[in-house]
Amino acid sequence: MAARTGKKPPAPAKCPACNGTGQTTETVRVGARKKQETGHKQTVMCLDCLGTGAKP
Ligand SMILES: [Zn+2]
């Protein structure tokens, strides 16, 4: 029976799109229908927070 001493530290508002990293990884797709994935992934700047990682 432990006493509940833990307080939740205030979490900084993170950008939900990139989870605060400022970058997102997207899969490169080819083809007109973009159904085929090449297996390559590229890291791109998060467009939601513009790379800051903060919640817009
Ligand atoms: Zn972001």
Highlighted features:
56 residues, mainly beta, two-stranded antiparallel sheet, elongated, binds zinc ion, HSP_DnaJ_Cys-rich_dom_sf, Molecular chaperone DnaJ
Brief rundown of the structure:
It is built from no helices and two strands.
Q: Would you write up a description of this structure?
A:
- The protein has 56 residues and is mainly β.
- The chain has one domain (13-56).
- It is 0% helix and 32% strand.
- The chain is built from no helices and 2 strands.
- The protein has strands spanning 23-30, 36-45.
- It has a two-stranded antiparallel sheet with strand order 1-2.
- Strand 1 and strand 2 form a beta hairpin.
- The radius of gyration is 18 Å and the shape is elongated.
- The termini are far apart.
- The mean pLDDT is 83.
- It binds zinc ion (ZN).
What does the secondary structure layout of this molecule look like, with pairings?
Layout (H helix, E strand, L loop, with lengths): L22 E8 L5 E10 L11
Bound molecules: zinc ion.
InterPro entries: HSP_DnaJ_Cys-rich_dom_sf
Protein name: Molecular chaperone DnaJ
